[in-house]
Write a structure and sequence with these properties.
alpha/beta; globular; five-stranded parallel sheet
Length: 223
């Protein structure tokens, strides 16, 4: 099938793309939503502008749709972007990185049904520890670009998801019930390298921003 990828640049959307391509599907285009609302219910926001560089190293066309990020209203902007992808790239399905959020999954499915497209969610209900290990084993270089839950703090920004990270997050899951893959919004990620990229992206510079007592984000620029 020809797929349109709901693409944030984080681990979930990139790994879903990787799984789909490995299964023989064609990644026809990437669809990224740039939300003005940093607390969007639907869309990842840290360093979202850098998806342009990821699209370049994946050699896949990118559709960018801006939204004010207002709850539910932002779905009209998502539908507009998906409809554009269908018309321009003749996709048959939409693939997303939804893992545990029924809110996200159901709304994507409703839009796909309306546009006569299939909705594919390769990570749905996947065991989070197994998932993190798969990222490491498949040579994904993933960094943390946002933390939004106690006891995570600015020291976690820029951390790479590796075996050490996995052990640390397992302990935090046991003690504080933090979802090991960040599916509860506890942290956000950005993929610097993976088998889909022609070469690994490098961080040109970054800026850390404190947004609350337990809320930090790292805005990066890559090359």
């Amino acid at each position: 099938m020809k797929l349109g990828v709901l693409f944030s640049g984080g681990k979930d959307s990139v790994y879903s793309s990787y799984l789909a391509k490995r299964q023989g599907h064609e990644l026809a285009c990437l669809i990224s939503i740039l939300s003005e609302n940093k607390e969007s219910y639907m869309f990842h926001t840290p360093s979202i502008e850098q998806v342009k560089k990821q699209a370049e190293v994946m050699n896949i066309p990118l559709i960018i749709q801006k939204t004010k990020g207002e709850k539910e209203i932002e779905l009209a902007d998502l539908e507009k972007a998906i409809k554009s992808a269908k018309e321009k790239y003749h996709i048959n399905a939409i693939i997303s990185g939804a893992m545990a959020s029924n809110y996200q999954k159901s709304r994507i499915e409703n839009i796909c049904k309306k546009l006569n497209l299939k909705s594919i969610t390769p990570l749905w209900q996947k065991d989070e520890i197994s998932y993190l290990k798969e990222l490491v084993n498949n040579n994904f270089k993933v960094i943390i670009v946002g933390v939004f839950a106690y006891p995570l703090d600015s020291s976690w920004l820029g951390k790479i998801i590796d075996e050490t990270f996995i052990q640390e997050i397992i302990e935090l899951n046991k003690k504080y019930k933090i979802h090991a893959a960040g599916e509860g919004g506890e942290f956000e990620t950005f993929v610097l390298g993976c088998p889909l990229f022609k070469h690994e992206l490098k961080i040109k510079f970054f800026r850390d921003i404190k947004e609350g007592e337990n809320s930090w984000r790292r805005e990066i620029k890559v090359e």
